[in-house]
Automatic annotation (TrEMBL):
Catalytic reaction list: (2S,3S)-3-methyl-L-aspartate = L-glutamate
Organism ancestry: Bacteria, Bacillati, Bacillota, Clostridia, Halanaerobiales
Known EC number: 5.4.99.1
Pathway involvement of the protein, from the record: Amino-acid degradation; L-glutamate degradation via mesaconate pathway; acetate and pyruvate from L-glutamate: step 1/4
Keywords: Cobalamin, Cobalt, Isomerase
Name of the encoding gene: glmE
Protein name in UniProt: Glutamate mutase epsilon subunit
Length: 482
């Protein structure tokens, strides 16, 4: 395996870059020196890294939606509305599915059709096709930092164009944008391709431009135990830091139990600080994702789910919260529905900003177990790589030491079975090949037995199924009698 966790030389980066920029004709427009100058000319309020550092210092939780449409003017109008009407603190640009699969010809067709039909025929903004000029028009029209949000296994050209276009934050990673999104792309390839993205951002950083990087925390979004998503987030944070990235936001998707979710955000930051301490000048922040699983169709019920996510994010003191909309069960939301989700969240976050979740025995125990589980996983990953995290990650997926529930990728073992305990916290019903100690195994087992007793059934796969469908029925835990 030639993959290794070592900062790429500028020569190696520049050599591969030549090929990357040829993947679509807008690649030829990218000039790094011009891009650096452009970023230097942007006002401070468009700088994601700065905004996040301020929020972390002030201990406030910023709101951010998801949004993207096919055409530039309509996209600007949408984002302006979310900022003004929805009071969004940070803005996104969600990229369309063709671009995520590097199908730029199809994206071009989508742009043409959107113009004739006078409505968006793509489920996001095709940034590669719009090129640097198109991206800069978006950035210049808005008065907030804008992040690229996507789901792209090979996101190299997209990064070149959007960063040169003035975006100041880039989501994704070699694991988090592969295993939940692709069926047959190897983890070795995506880690390599994301080293390129991180090296590009490392280059900007060397020139004084700090681009924020955010691994995609929630993974498959349903019943992902915190120690799984923490392991992936910390690995991607470390791989990014090695390539010179400095401003890192690690994410976690709401599981639904308040204590577990607060413990998860706190341990994510504490663990990451520990693991990343070998790198200088890293700034770490956190992002809490409102409920990423199935949503109730009913809009009032959806607002309940959204509010609970907002409340948890605020009590956990996450640096930002990614907001859902009352249209979640239906597909891409209207701008009005998107603003409603934002305003609901802002209301709750504001009401809770002076309240903290007080440490208590239960929170401390939860934190202790998340840390233990995560460290047991990461220790084995390092061992498998003989100290090299990139190699270790590839081997860990082969061995099922890293395993993400409900993922489509054939490079994922898929042996894990998570289920909720009696309080709704996500536990390991079956830990597959995860390298857990007796203590961790027994802790999870006892928690699930407690639920089994209450429900007069043995913990089994039926619980997993019931839990997946519970929220659609208005519940968190899939209890048979409710
Ligand atoms: C992994 C992210 C899934 C979430 C939302 C989905 C879901 C996707 C768009 C969007 C607004 C878009 N999402 N594309 N929301 N505009 N173009 O991302 O609804 O919540």
């Amino acid at each position: 395996m030639k993959l290794k966790n070592k900062k790429w030389s500028l020569d190696k980066f520049m050599q591969i870059r030549e090929e990357v920029l040829k993947q679509w004709d807008t690649g030829a427009e990218v000039d790094l020196e011009d891009a650096i100058e452009y970023h230097k000319s942007l006002p401070e309020q468009k700088d994601m890294s700065k905004k996040l550092i301020e929020a972390k210092e002030e201990k406030i939780t910023l709101t951010q939606p998801r949004a993207g449409v096919a055409l530039i003017d309509e996209h600007v109008e949408l984002l302006k509305f979310l900022k003004e009407e929805g009071q969004a603190d940070l803005l996104p640009t969600t990229i369309d599915s063709y671009t995520r699969q590097n199908k730029y010809q199809e994206a071009e067709e989508g742009i043409k059709q959107s113009k004739t039909e006078e409505r968006s025929m793509l489920n996001g903004f095709p940034a590669v096709n719009h090129g640097i000029k198109g991206c800069r028009k978006v950035i210049e029209s808005l008065d907030a930092p804008v992040q690229v949000r996507h789901g792209t296994p090979d996101a190299r050209l997209l990064a070149e164009i959007t960063l040169a276009g003035g975006f100041t934050s880039y989501e994704g990673g070699g694991i988090s944008y592969n295993i939940p999104y692709a069926k047959d792309v190897s983890i070795e390839k995506t880690i390599y391709d994301w080293q390129y993205v991180d090296r590009l951002i490392g280059y900007y950083e060397e020139k004084g431009i700090s681009i924020n990087r955010e691994p995609f925390g929630p993974l498959t979004g349903t019943l992902v135990p915190p120690s799984i998503s923490h392991s992936v987030a910390i690995i991607e944070g470390l791989l990014a830091a090695e390539q010179g990235v400095k401003n890192i936001t690690l994410g976690y998707g709401q599981c639904g139990n308040l204590t577990q979710d607060v413990a998860a955000i706190q341990t994510l930051e504490e663990l990451a600080e520990e693991y990343l301490s070998e790198y200088d000048d890293i700034v770490l922040t956190t992002v809490f994702h409102q409920w990423m699983g199935g949503f109730p169709q009913d809009e009032s019920q959806a607002f309940g789910v959204i509010s609970w996510g907002g409340a948890t994010a605020a009590l956990a003191q996450a640096t930002k919260v990614i907001v859902k909309t009352p249209h979640e069960a239906l597909g891409v939301p209207t701008k009005e529905a998107n603003a409603q989700g934002l305003k609901t969240t802002k209301q709750v976050v504001n009401m809770l900003k002076d309240q903290h979740f007080m440490p208590n025995g239960v929170l401390e125990k939860e934190k202790e177990m998340i840390k233990k589980e995560t460290k047991e996983i990461l220790n084995r990953v390092f061992e498998l790589g003989k100290g090299d995290l990139a190699k270790g990650t590839v081997r860990a997926f082969e061995a099922g030491v890293l395993d993400i529930p409900f993922a489509p990728s054939k490079y994922n073992a898929g042996n894990l079975l998570p289920a909720r305990d009696n309080n709704g916290a996500v536990r390991y019903l079956n830990h597959g090949n995860l390298p857990f100690s007796e203590e961790v195994i027994n802790f999870n087992k006892e928690k699930l037995e407690e639920r089994g007793k209450d429900e007069e059934r043995d913990p089994s796969f039926q619980m997993v199924i019931d839990d997946i469908y519970a929220i659609g029925k208005g519940m968190l835990v899939g209890k048979p009698r409710t």
